[in-house]
Every structure is written in structure tokens, then in C-alpha cells.
Amino acid sequence: MERLTLDKTDLDILAILGRDCRTSYNSMGSQIGLTSKSVKARVKNMVRNGVIEKFVVRVNPAAFGCKTAHILARTNNGITKDDVVQRFKQFGDLAYHIHQMGRNSGAGLVINDESWNHSAIQSLKDCLRPATVSNIAVTHVPVSIEPSETDLRIIKCLLQSGARIEISEIAKELGISEKTATRRLDRMKEERLLDFTLQCDPAAMIGYVQFCIIMFVAKSHYRSVYERMYSEFQESILYRPSVIDPDDRLIFVLFGENAVKVDLVLAKIDSFEGVKTADAFIVTKLQYYDDWIIREIDKRLAGSSSLPPLSRKPIREVDALKV
User: Fold this and answer.
1) Average of per-residue pLDDT across 123-147
2) Integer Cα distance of 98 and 252 in angstroms
3) What is the pLDDT of residues 152-208, one digit of tens each?
4) How far is 28 from 198, CA to CA, in rounded Å?
5) How far apart are CA 288 and CA 25, in angstroms?
6) Of 126, 125, 144, 143, which Cα lies nearest the Cα of 135?
7) Cis peptide before 202, with omega less than 30 degrees from 0?
8) Which terminus of the chain, N or C, has fewer Cβ atoms within 10 Å?
9) Measuring CA to CA, how many Å separate 253 from each of 21, 117, 137, 198?
10) What domains can you pick out in the chain, each with its CATH number?
11) Element (H, E) at 312
12) Gap between the Cα atoms of 269 and 278, Å rounded
């Protein structure tokens, strides 16, 4: 595979897609001063060269009565990071996993709160040995709406056909109007039921490093710190906080030229009012998972659907949203 050297325009496109991968080529072009055709060509090139691995739909497990257990483990001799991920799967459905430079590996597990008790946590620690669990944080970000049958089918359509599928295609697939599809999708985003991002391969971003900043913040300063991040580092932010992050923690993934850039960003964040603690990790691998969402949606739709079945014919993500 050809190795692609990213330029500033490519990075600007990645930053926009990281905030919302459904952003149209027209909108991206307007923001960075290119034609939609040029933006589309660059996105296709980054997909072809493996920089963009996947356009991602992130769904809040709270919509299905579940919580998320964020687990950080440290490997030791005798167990690899991938071994740790496989063992995580015995205790819940993977929402994501992340490998960091050094021995740290983390994962988000979608869990049923009733089965996640002290005994289960101890069993997980025992299963991971000789790796050790550094931290476990369980989060639950409530949603204020119950996803309707139409909502569930929209989410499933996005997962099966690609996060960048056009509204017109969603409407056609579900047999609903474009106005309804747009309204339902916008409401789910507003109510923190889902959001959109992308998955990039750190190894393919030649000349840059991906790094994760984890901040614990005073709840009263959450919004101001969030806005300060975009004020200071907008062009470097690859992934923003997701729908499963609570209101006292902010997680951003950024890119920079080297480790010195990472240190400078962290030092700047430490000075933000409202930031209690902050730390940085170099990302070597990041992957999101959809299996649990499809299964939960199918459970709810089984036997109760009044809408026509979804086609399973995939739509190529880079060909969607042609405007």
C-alpha cells in the first residue's frame, strides 16, 4: 500500500470529520477553502491509504439500559495488549479499545449494571493476570428520550450502510420522508443518544503522533474547559468527548508533530481554570465496535416491526454524501 504523507489540508479535513464524520463535502470545502470535489478526492485518498479506517457511529449504552465500564490495564511479561483485549470480552461487550505507548491498554465495556459487582470486578482482575488493572470507572450518561422504532432503524441503517450514508438513502431504505429522517437524527444527536466520528490508524499518520488527553474537571467548568480546548487546539483535535463521557471528565484525542508537542499541550491544559488533573498518552491503536449495538437493536425490533425490512446491501462510505 502506498504511504501517504499528510499535509495541513488533510489534517484539517480529519479534524472536521473527527468532530462529525457526517459533515458534507460542501461544508468541509467551505471551511477550508476547497471545492467539494477536491475534499472528496482527499477523503477517498486517506481511506485508500489506510489513514481513515472507519467512519464511526457512537451510541450511548444508556439508551439500552446499560452502563460503560472504562478499564485501564497495564501489561507485564507473559501477556500482550491484544491478549488483554480478548480477556476483556469475557466481561462485557467491547465499545472500544485503545492501546497506548508503553504497557497501558484500555477498553470500554458495555455492561449490565446488575451483573457488574465487586465479585465480577475481582474476577476480571484475576482473569487479566499477569496484567494489572490500573483503573476502573463506570459511567452512565442518561438519555432523555426513549429511542423509537424509527430511531432504532435509522441507527441500524447507519451502522450497516456507513455513517456517511445520505439522508435520502436512509429515507428510501426505511420508507419514511427525508424530513422525518432528518428530524429524528438531529434529535438523537441533541439528546446525546449518538454522535459521529472516525477511526484513524496512528501508524498511517506519517510525521504525526496521536495522543489522548484525559482531564478531570469541576462540573461547573465543564463547558468552559470544553470551549477552551477548541479555542486553543481546534486544528489539532481529532476526536472530541463522546456521548458516554460524564460531566466531570473530558477526553480528547489530538495529533501533533512529536512528543514535545504533547508535553506543550498538556502544560497548557494544566493551566486551565476548572481542570483538576490532566494526563497524556501516546495512542498506538484505537478501534470502535458495533456488534453490541446491532444485537440490542435487533432485540427491540424483533416481532414488533411495522416497517419494511432493511436491505443489507452496503453503501461505500466514501461515496456517500456526494454534496
Assistant:
1) 90
2) 13
3) 999 999 999 999 999 999 999 999 999 999 999 999 999 989 999 999 999 999 889
4) 15
5) 24
6) 125
7) no
8) N
9) 15, 30, 19, 11
10) 1-58+146-307 (3.30.70.920), 61-140 (3.30.70.3190)
11) none
12) 7
Angle between helices 149-161 and 167-174 (to 10 degrees): 120
Q: Is 20 helix (H, G, I), strand (E, B) or coil?
A: coil
Please state whether beta strands 237-239 and 132-139 pair in parallel, antiparallel, or not at all (unpaired).
Answer: unpaired
All three cell numbers of 146: 426513549
Distance between CA 284 and CA 56 in Å, rounded?
18
Rounded to whole angstroms, the Cα distance separating 25 from 39 reads: 6
Question: What's the CA gap between 294 and 283, in Å, rounded?
Answer: 27
Q: Cell 471528565 sits at which residue?
A: 249
Q: Beta 104-111 vs 93-100: how paired, if at all? A: antiparallel
Grid cell locating 209 = 503522533
What's the chain's average pLDDT?
A: 89
CB 283 within 8 A of CB 212: yes
Distance CA 249, CA 82 (A): 26
115 contact partners, CB below 8 Å, separation of at least 6: none
Degrees (nearest 5) of the Cα angle 309, 312, 314? 140
Identify the CA nearest to 159 among candidates 290, 310, 322: 290
Q: What is the pLDDT of residues 243-302, one digit of tens each?
A: 778 778 899 999 999 989 999 999 999 999 999 999 999 999 999 999 999 999 999 998
- How far lies 196's CA from each of 40, 164, 186, 240, in Å? 18, 9, 12, 10
Complete DSSP assignment for 154-203: HHHHHHHH-TT--HHHHHHHHT--HHHHHHHHHHHHHTTSEEEEEEE-GG
Which cell is 49 given? 491509504
Cα of 207 vs its chain's centroid, Å: 23
State the alpha helices, DSSP H only, in the chain.
Answer: 8-19, 25-32, 36-48, 81-88, 118-128, 149-161, 167-174, 178-190, 222-233, 259-270, 291-301
Distance between CA atoms of residues 160 and 22, nearest Å: 15
